[in-house]
Each structure stands twice: as structure tokens, then as C-alpha cells.
């Protein structure tokens, strides 16, 4: 059993999970990213203390049901697979707070996601989503939703009824008109760039916008699903005025 209760087998070109890993019953973090996995052994159910499971960048066409038995999971990475749906058993993961399902084959956001009552962060970018289910408004703990690179032709109406959202990312969709978001009291950042929109979304004072017609001020840069604030302190300092000129050899 690793002392730090973590096993990282990322990038090992694994086609199956070594069974001895399932004997580490106190394991808290298991990283299996960037392999060739398309199934998991039923013995994985023994890892009932697991809180973080990374299965991104694999070949899963369906989420193995054994994952849904790991009821202490808080963070689940499923991005960059071949998932077209999620099983109803996912609702058993009632401690889940972060779910990454970006870069899959989802044409609809699975409604079972709306039953994850503690979910705070949802990454669903780079799929083929055209709408969001109305049930999503029931996720009152949800603070961040990433929907970039989908097929949304209108701003999802359900988001207008989620006052606790802090970050909305609809970059790289097909939205032509944005309704006002000024009534959302929790909103801090909206990213709407690369849409064929005719207007910028109206927002309350202090809310940052990234996209056409946004305010002229340093904006956050987006990198790999994260937002990195650009502050004046992070700008490169100008060269000192008394810097000596380099000597020219004769």
C-alpha cells in the first residue's frame, strides 16, 4: 500500500488494470489516464475509500458499472474517451463534486448528471450537445459549467434559472443571441467567444466577460479548461532605463 494512498499508472499503455491494485483498500487516489483501457475488473469495488479516479484519455465506450459502486468518489475524470451516454447507476455517486466528461461523443447531457446533488464543477466541453435538460437547475451546488466546443445554437435557457452559477463557458458554439445575465447574482465570469453572436451578454457590475464587445480590460486566458487571471503584477516588467548598452567589438 503506497504511503500517500495514491497510485499513478498514467501513460503506461495499459490494456487492463493490474489486479493487485484492487487490494489497496485504503487507496484514495487512482490515476489511470492516457492508457488503452476499455474495461475495469469487478474487483475495483474493493476500493471503497477512493475519492479521485482518473480514467481520461482511454478507450471507454461505456462507463464500467463498477465505477458507480465507489460511493466516496468526489472527483471523476472521464474526458477524452468514446462515451455516448452515462449509466443510470451514476446517481449512486452522491459525493461527486467534480465531473469531467469533455471530448466524448455525447449528443445530450445525460439526465442522470442532474441527480448528482453535490456537483460543483461540470466539464462537458467538446461534445455534440445542442441543449441542456431543464432538470439541471436542481443542482443548487453547481458553480462552474464548461460547455465550449459544442453545438449550442442558443444560450441554454436552464442556465438563466441557476442564480448560484459563478462561471459559464459557452465558447466555440453556434449561439447568435445572448440574453441578459445581469440577474444572476453569483456570476463572476462568462466566456462566450467564437460564437456568431450579434450582441454581448449583459452582466452585472464586476462580472468579467470574455468575447466580442467585452470590456477593454485584462481578461482571463483559458488554458486546458482552467481560467488563469491576468493581473498587473503578472505582466513582464519593462527594462530598466539605466541598462548599459552592449559593447561593440572593433
Automatic annotation (TrEMBL):
List the Gene3D superfamilies: Ribonuclease Inhibitor
Q: Does the keyword Repeat apply?
A: yes
Which keywords does UniProt give here? Answer: Leucine-rich repeat, Repeat
Classification via Pfam families: LRR_1
Organism, as annotated: Cairina moschata
The segments labelled Disordered in the record are 209-250
User: What GO CC terms are in its UniProt record?
Assistant: cytoplasm
Q: What is the name listed in the Swiss-Prot or TrEMBL entry for this protein?
A: Leucine rich repeat containing 10
Q: Where is the composition biased (Basic and acidic residues)?
A: 212-222, 232-250
Amino acid at each position: 500500500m503506497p504511503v500517500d494512498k495514491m497510485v499513478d499508472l498514467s501513460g503506461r499503455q495499459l490494456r487492463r488494470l493490474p489486479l493487485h491494485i484492487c487490494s489497496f483498500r485504503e487507496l484514495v487516489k487512482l490515476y489511470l489516464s492516457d492508457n488503452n483501457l476499455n474495461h475495469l475488473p469487478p474487483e475495483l469495488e474493493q476500493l471503497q475509500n477512493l475519492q479521485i479516479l482518473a480514467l481520461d484519455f482511454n478507450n471507454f465506450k461505456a462507463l464500467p458499472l463498477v465505477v458507480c459502486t465507489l460511493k466516496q468518489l468526489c472527483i471523476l475524470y472521464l474526458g477524452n474517451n468514446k462515451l455516448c451516454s452515462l449509466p443510470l447507476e451514476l446517481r449512486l455517486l452522491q459525493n461527486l463534486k467534480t465531473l469531467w466528461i469533455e471530448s466524448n461523443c455525447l449528443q445530450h447531457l445525460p439526465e442522470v448528471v442532474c441527480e448528482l446533488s453535490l456537483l460543483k464543477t461540470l466539464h462537458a466541453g467538446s461534445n455534440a450537445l445542442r441543449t441542456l435538460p431543464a432538470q439541471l437547475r436542481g443542482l443548487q451546488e453547481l458553480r462552474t459549467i464548461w460547455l465550449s466546443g459544442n453545438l449550442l445554437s442558443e444560450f441554454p435557457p436552464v442556465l438563466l434559472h441557476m442564480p448560484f452559477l459563478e462561471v459559464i463557458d459557452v465558447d466555440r458554439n453556434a449561439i447568435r443571441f445572448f440574453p441578459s445575465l445581469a440577474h444572476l447574482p453569483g456570476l463572476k465570469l462568462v466566456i462566450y467567444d467564437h460564437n456568431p453572436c450579434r450582441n454581448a451578454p449583459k452582466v452585472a457590475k464586476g462580472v468579467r466577460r470574455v468575447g466580442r464587445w467585452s470590456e477593454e480590460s485584462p481578461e482571463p486566458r483559458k488554458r486546458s479548461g482552467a481560467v488563469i487571471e491576468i493581473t498587473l503584477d503578472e505582466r513582464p516588467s519593462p527594462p530598466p532605463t539605466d541598462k548599459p548598452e552592449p559593447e561593440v567589438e572593433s
